[in-house]
Amino acid sequence: MMERKLSAIAGLLLLCCTFTDQTHQHKVQKPTLTSQGQDCTAIKDSSPNAQSGIYIIQPKGVPVPFKVYCEMLADGGWTVFQRRTGGEVSFQRNWAEYKHGFGYLEKDHWLGLAKVWALTRSNDQKSILRVGLWDFEGGSAFAEYRDFRIGDEAAAYQLSVGTYKGTAGDAIRGAYSGIDQNGFGFSTKDRDNDGCSPCIFRDIAGRNAAHQRVGRLVVQPLWLSQPPWRLAPSGGQRGLGARVHWRRGKARPHTPYKPLK
Fold it and tell me: pTM of whole model > 0.90?
């Protein structure tokens, strides 16, 4: 069985239209994208010397190909669905924006929940999620999950992960006792699916994690806690129950994904 690789980077993680000319009734259509493979893993398998960059993929069952950034590493191709390195791109977005994606593929971006669902929905192919974390002083860590998938929009893109390995700690199942994000839906500022009401942070109760701000830590929407996973400095405040939190001081995340073989 093939295993697909997905990645979320945090540290540094097409619309085809037809226009009608009312005078000449002349239709102009944008060029059709041609798929280079089902995902970055397949592209790397077929072209071992492929370099990291933007590629066009078409997962099984998806009618229209789309562009992604592929991290072509020694262990294979990883499809990046989130990258956040700084403040150039705002991650304070609504549900529609998280569904369809935003940002710049070569820079900070969120690929889109609909695309991540398309990449992970196949029963014939399992996926690996890798979260890479590093800080500004050269420190790094990673968290890797097998059997990664998310549900469809009707299920609020519910997160599901299998066994964990890595050096960053299993933050999805909780950096703190009693906290487990596995099986929760995605939340944004305009749609609350975090299952937390009220949310408790230490001795503070709030509405829900999608709307909380605690000190220097911005609590943003999501199961994977809205991959913007912004982490608190060491010794600082440590996050809310409805958010994924890697207790790695100043480290930030990078999140790729890959199908398994």
Answer: no
